[in-house]
Design goal:
Length: 330
């Protein structure tokens, strides 16, 4: 894989003592796995880590967050304005906290929230954010994918404050410990002047594991032809494997499943222990979202399908026959 180096000014060696702030997200009153992955990444800096939680969800997880290993404090930002994680409200909060305590690094998961907050926070602090980092070389040098993951850029920053979002699939989540650290309340001093309001959300619930953090994923593609075949073949196989369900963009655009299941450059980035691709051709955008999986199994009747170029195990067969047979033998 091509590896490039991008220099963004020389790093100053006169930087004072370092301290890291990390944002911990919550979903359904539980810390998201990608947040724990971001903490793992932040620990590579080797400096004290303070975590911040916000809103009602933050209130619900503050005691759990206090047990994250390697941190020294939990900051809680109360207030209904932080519910639903509107980036227009979170960005001024993070700016005030970073500047009031002289934090030198800020880490957030590369989630929908993190990707929305980071550029706004960068604008407020007048620094260049680093998105989707997958490796930490040193306190000022990071590796991130470019060109849909076909190349890696090693980026060095000399900004006084380094802002970075962390690709969850690149760092295993840390395990919660037993001892808790102190918890403090904080508040933003800067007015957000926010003109955005939360209207509603539609949550897709499933008994399957979460796609973003599952150790096994079964994905369906255009080759499944319709929603009935998708549900009839993918769901039983995923159930037998206790796997999350994913899909290619072609399957999502064709209405086979909800767009929250899309894997790829414009969907979720996953790196499970096992990735089973059924009827997925392997377009470059899809490969960008799953090619780091530990073991890739592909089932496709087209022997020339690009998915076989990255598959560890490939089966050229009619999926309507092969998948039910595989499911029955598991």
């Amino acid at each position: 894989m091509l590896r490039s180096f991008v220099s963004k000014r020389f790093f100053s060696s006169t930087r004072a003592s370092l301290d890291t702030l990390a944002f911990v997200e919550s979903a359904q009153s539980k810390i998201t796995p990608t947040s724990l992955s971001a903490i793992n990444a932040a620990s590579k800096i080797g400096e004290p880590i303070t975590v911040i939680v916000a809103g009602s969800e933050g209130e619900a997880i503050k005691d759990e967050a206090a047990k994250i290993p390697g941190i020294n404090k939990v900051l809680v930002a109360k207030g209904t304005q932080y519910d639903h994680y509107l980036s227009e409200e979170l960005s001024p909060l993070f700016k005030d906290v970073i500047q009031s305590s002289n934090f030198t690094h800020f880490f957030t998961p590369a989630s929908a929230v993190g990707k929305s907050v980071l550029p706004r926070l960068g604008a407020l602090l007048d620094v260049q954010p680093l998105s989707d980092i997958i490796k930490i070389e040193s306190k000022d040098t990071f590796v991130r994918p470019i060109y849909a993951g076909n190349a890696l850029a090693t980026v060095q920053s000399s900004d006084k404050i380094i802002l970075a979002s962390v690709r969850g699939s690149a760092f295993p989540p840390v395990e919660l410990g037993a001892e808790a650290v102190p918890i403090e309340e904080v508040a933003a001093t800067t007015e957000s002047n926010n003109r955005t309001e939360f209207v509603s959300e539609q949550l897709i619930t499933s008994e399957r594991p979460d796609l973003g953090s599952a150790s096994k994923v079964v994905s369906g593609g255009r080759g499944l032809k319709n929603k009935e075949t998708f549900d009839g073949l993918i769901e039983p196989l995923a159930a037998k494997l206790n796997a999350a369900v994913g899909a290619s963009r072609a399957a999502v655009d064709s209405g086979f499943c909800d767009n929250s299941l899309q894997v790829g450059q414009t969907g979720k980035i996953v790196a499970p222990e096992l990735y089973v691709a059924v009827g997925v051709s392997g377009a470059i955008q899809h490969l960008a979202g799953m090619k780091d999986s530990k073991t890739i199994v592909a089932i496709n009747k087209d022997p020339e399908a690009p998915i076989f170029n990255v598959a560890d195990i490939g089966l050229v067969a009619d999926l309507n026959e092969a998948v039910p047979e595989l499911t029955g033998k598991l």
